[in-house]
Design brief:
six-stranded mixed β-sheet; Purple Acid Phosphatase, chain A, domain 2; alpha/beta
Length: about 425
Amino acid sequence: MVQYHPAICYACGVASNKYTYPSDAAIKKGVEEFGTREYGAQIGIPMASVRDYCLNHGLPTKKKGGIIYPPDAEIAAGVEEFGVRVYGPQIGINYQTLKEYCSIHGLPTKKTGGSYKHIYPSDAAIKKGIEDLGLGEYSRQRGIDRTTMRNYCVSHGLPVKKVDNTMPLVMVSFEEELAVDHYKHLIIKPETPVCVTADWHMPLCDWAYVKRMLSYCEAHKVEELVIAGDYFNFDKLSRWRWKQDPHFAKTKDTRLLPEVRQGNLAMKMLLNQFKRVYVCAGNHDIRFAEALGFRLPFDYTMRMLLHELSDDERSRLTITSFDQMTMSVPRGRDWLICHTNEYSKMALVVPSRIADAERINVASAHRHHHAIGVSPRGMVVVELGGLFSEKETQYKQQYTSASFPDWCNGFCVIDNVTGVARLPGLDGEAF
């Protein structure tokens, strides 16, 4: 009987009768599990003969190496839709290993034009990604060839270049900076009645009282607000002994950073309700500029502190470095709104002196009195009270002194046309 060499059998396409082979299914399983060398030794057939038989019968010739492949139908669909380069990483298999597996099992190795929606993100996401990162970096992050991504963008009308979001460098000359007058007396001409407040001492506010004030202004169409000093407390910047322990006010964090944060949130709230807000300096909130040795003016430092405001909010906030401003009244006497450094236990004494000296109505803050009256020369004078919380102000509660006045919450509303002032809740008006 003629014996054929296995290589001759393989070349001629005929089977060798020298060895008895198991079924193709058993060989496929054995080779994938053990490889041709070890599996050949198990069934008593040389490795070369097993390999030749597998090649002749379209069976795998290499061990899988622990890789778990999806069903062949699923692999074929994935490769046809994505290609081996994209589909391989999706199933956790090196694309070259997957390509070899597909060749052995008669599966496609190239993409046949699948749906873009499974490969690419939304057009909006691609547009943002390329504008932020550029075509090359974004393509790399998405695992897509740069040229392929570019072609997709061109065909869909998407940008292919990064957008330069850097702000142009604008140099301000010394002469231009000097042209900004930080020390100009502020004269306001409001278009609606004005709510005049003072002594918020952020964050030691009486928020229940603030809420009532805001409700009153909304009901009476008061759309402009004045803060006559001491918006911030800044006890931690005082040159005197600190008087406010952060733990004293249980619900208020009086450390410097939370105080500034609370001031930003409150100012955003105020600018959401009022069309315009005017602020002058007080002895407490000027401490920040003082800590800088007044190298920056008060209005500049306040805008630094209120850094969370939007451009629109900033445009409606006016700050003066002075401790006063004048309210112009068309059909009445003008008002001087101020935060004085003078102190008196008697209400209306200080504003009366100023009113008679300047021949002007005066609404004054600092002493925490709340009162309205007439000076000896017939000027209307007001003590503005404040929006502070007396019970959460530590030195007022902890220490005993005959020099402390009786503190009183309050605010004043001044008509923008006649200049008539009223103190809601104090002059009999419902509040």
